[in-house]
Amino acid sequence: MAGSSRLVVLAPKALLPGSDLPQAATIEVDVTTGKVLDVHHGLKPDIAGGAEVLEVDESKILLPGLIE
Prior knowledge:
Elements: E1 6-14, E2 23-30, E3 36-41, E4 52-55
Parallel strand pairs: 1-4
Antiparallel strand pairs: 1-2, 2-3
């Protein structure tokens, strides 16, 4: 959405720290800095508020993290 500096990524399959198996996750990203703000277990589209939402295809596995 216009003006939002946050992106909410809904990933049916993500590899999260401490797990070897893909699981559903919601990742909040600051689009200005590129930093991951928060990682939530499960798909939580309701936390988007006015933020842009990106839905990852179920055939893909997301590896959330920050590369500096």
